[in-house]
Design brief:
This protein has 349 residues and is an alpha/beta fold. It has 14 helices and ten strands. The strands form two sheets. Strands 3-2-1-4-5-6-10-7 form an eight-stranded mixed beta sheet, sandwiched between helices. Helix 1 (17-28) runs antiparallel to helix 11 (216-236) and helix 10 (204-213) packs parallel to helix 13.
């Protein structure tokens, strides 16, 4: 049961391998009360990422939390997805189970608004780990949420580095107009960007720790990281994949795991070569009225401690609907051999 130290969050995501880990961390950590999960176009199209979110929910044994689908395109721009990192499904690698429950009938934007308005002011943190389309639409539809939200802790952007372009990070550049709305809304924003998340590497030692948990959900994460690692090595030359999105959840759980620095941050929406850049003003101390911060340093060991602990707490779930890939391939091979035997017998007759 939630207590006075519980952090209430809405997780807005586009699963995505690292989004899946973020969902598991939020579900498994005892200080997080997961109020809702909403999806938005990003790593893949909206139907794909929404199905992925529901599949992860079943694997993790999440019940009683509303999941809702949101914006299927950016505010103004054409859809961009990332199959080179996340595959054609958005969650390639593991075999995904069928969902065990239905989506909330509300649009994600309405679920976000309803959830914020139903709780006391200053008690709900929004954690977007995708493009910011849903959050911008919620601000436009119901501006009162800005004064009621405790904080927006988002994965996106970067002070010194980009990945979709030399200066722009994927989640920001796919809908820079939405990001501009969110950053200028007047609430507290913590940007957990690439400066920080490129430190959250899933090294072989981390993979071994996760495997040692010995549960189905942990094995599922292992398969996620295996595909994710190969994709990052091929696409961006990383020896170990940076697992971005759970860093934002980790900040909410324990801000001391992350060192965040207050600084003015603006979003470039018109630049020819700098579209989507998160322009951080590092010229001096931030003014007293500055409402934006950037995460800069990660305690790598404590971060992965949180992830492993969450997986241990989730434990085995009764109805994952999930089969480890090796077992599924063995079954498929057996079925193929049986079919071959039947064909040979039929031919001999």
């Amino acid at each position: 049961m939630p207590d006075a130290t519980t952090q209430k969050i809405i997780l807005d995501c586009d699963p995505g391998h690292d989004d899946a880990v973020a969902i598991l961390l939020a579900h498994g950590n005892p200080t997080i009360e997961l109020l809702a999960v909403t999806t938005v176009v990003g790593n893949q199209t909206l139907p794909k990422v929404t199905r992925n979110a529901l599949a992860v929910a079943r694997i993790a044994g999440i019940t009683g939390v509303p999941f809702a689908a949101g914006a299927d395109r950016p505010l103004l721009r054409e859809i961009e997805v990332a199959p080179e990192i996340h595959g054609e499904s958005g969650l390639d690698g593991p075999m995904l189970p069928e969902p065990s429950f239905d989506l909330d009938e509300r649009h994600a934007v309405d679920l976000i608004i309803d959830t914020v308005m139903a709780h006391e002011p200053g008690t709900v943190t929004i954690v977007p780990t995708a493009g910011l389309t849903n959050i911008a639409l919620a601000v436009r539809k119901e501006p009162r949420i800005v004064e009621r939200v405790k904080q927006v802790v988002l994965m996106g952007g970067g002070v010194h580095v980009g990945n979709r372009s030399p200066v722009a990070e994927f989640n920001i550049v796919i809908d820079p107009e939405a990001a501009d709305i969110v950053f200028r809304a007047g609430w507290d924003v913590v940007m957990v960007g690439l400066d920080l998340t490129h430190q959250a590497l899933a090294t072989p030692e981390v993979a071994a720790r996760i495997a040692a948990v010995g549960t189905g959900p942990a094995a599922f994460v292992g398969e996620l990281l295996e595909f994710f690692g190969k994709a990052y090595e091929d696409a961006q030359g990383f020896d170990a994949p940076p697992v971005h999105d759970p860093c934002a959840v980790a900040y909410v759980i324990d801000p001391t795991v992350v060192r965040a620095v207050k600084m003015p941050i603006a979003i470039e929406t018109t630049g020819t070569h700098t579209l989507g850049m998160t322009v951080a003003d590092l010229r001096g101390p931030a003014p007293d009225d500055c409402r934006t911060s950037a995460a800069m340093e990660l305690d790598h060991e404590r971060f992965w401690d949180l992830v492993v602990d969450a997986l241990e707490r989730i434990g085995e779930t009764p109805d994952t609907g999930w089969t480890p890939r090796a077992a599924a391939e063995a079954i498929a091979d057996t079925d193929t051999d049986t079919d071959t035997d039947v064909t040979v017998v039929a031919q001999e007759r």
